[in-house]
Design brief:
AAA_dom, disordered C terminus, Rossmann fold, binds adenosine-5'-triphosphate, AAA family ATPase, 13 helices, globular, 42% helix, 13% strand, alpha/beta, DNA_Partitioning_ATPase, 7 strands, 268 residues
């Protein structure tokens, strides 16, 4: 059964899509079968793996609206073993159209059920909000992975995010765990970046895992999406690539207890 990881943070521009794309790419390059679900109407994860949004006939919007099965929108990517469930701006409509729909928070979870056994990992990118799209990701997930940008307001909003995850656990998905926090856009030249790393580690100490791997600010990571390539294909030797490869190894090595129990239950 594929381990479902929702990449969430209601703050914009913290590196959710960059993390989703590059983690998924390195997991696939390590021989795993991976599905990247673009749950953000901006479609940055879709563009980031080289899929042209204008050529798409169906996307995650149609899946959430029960118009198409997940299998019908999944596409292969340039990396063997990495598939994509794409998003276009249409997905923005789902946030509104689902408000009065039945089982509105469980649409993604249900849609993933027939394909879960095909994949080792299913990574869900989320929009910068705590609306229905993010809730669908969290309700479907075994674990949440939270990217945090090394900048001045890094800790702002984190308590609210943790409360939301707790609420999802109580009402929608009792098995959900916070798989980990990943620090992004670290700039070794500034004291501020190191200060944020220290603050975030002490904020979560003893409660939530903060991954050892810290993602550096690296211009090659910014350039890669405009070429429609994960960093592993665009510039595999750069520091950003090295960091995401290490992060993928760390995530694959570490499996939170909740996720393990749930997978075992499903297999038995
Ligand atoms: N480590 C990094 N170094 C340099 N640039 C980065 C890094 N990570 C992300 N970026 C750039 O920062 C911007 C925001 O990143 P990204 O789109 O991954 O964030 P996001 O949290 O998904 O954003 P949104 O909330 O809008 O969906 C993008 O232009 C991306 O290329």
């Amino acid at each position: 059964m594929g381990r479902v990881i929702a990449i969430v943070n209601q703050k914009g521009g913290v590196g959710k899509s960059t993390t989703a794309v590059n983690l998924a790419a390195y997991m696939a390059l390590a021989g795993r079968k991976v599905l990247l679900v673009d749950g953000d109407p901006q479609g940055n994860a879709t563009t980031g793996v080289g899929v042209n949004k204008r050529e798409l006939e169906g996307c995650v919007y149609h899946v959430l609206m029960n118009e198409r099965p997940m299998e019908a929108v999944i596409r292969a990517t340039e990396i063997a073993g990495l598939d994509l469930a794409p998003a276009t701006i249409d997905l923005a409509g789902a946030e509104i159209e689902l408000v009065s729909a039945l089982s509105r928070e469980f649409r993604l979870k249900r849609a993933l059920e027939p394909v879960r056994s095909v994949y080792d990992y299913i990574l869900v990118d989320s929009p910068p909000s705590l609306g229905l799209l993010t809730l669908n990701g969290l309700a479907a997930a075994d674990e949440a992975l939270v990217p945090i940008q090394c900048e001045f307001y890094a800790l702002e909003g984190l308590s609210q995010l943790m409360r939301t995850i707790e609420m999802v656990r109580e009402h929608l998905n009792p098995d959900l765990v916070v798989g980990g926090v990943v620090l992004t856009m670290y700039d070794a030249r500034t004291n501020l970046s190191q200060q944020v790393v220290d603050d975030v580690r002490s904020f979560f100490a003893g409660k939530v895992r903060v991954f050892e791997t810290v993602i550096p600010r690296n211009v090659r990571l910014t350039e890669a999406p405009s070429h429609g390539k994960p960093i592993a294909l665009y510039d595999p030797g750069c520091r950003g690539a090295e960091a995401y490869r290490e992060l993928a190894e760390e995530v694959m090595r570490y499996e939170p207890a909740g996720a393990r129990q749930r997978a075992a239950g499903a297999d038995s």
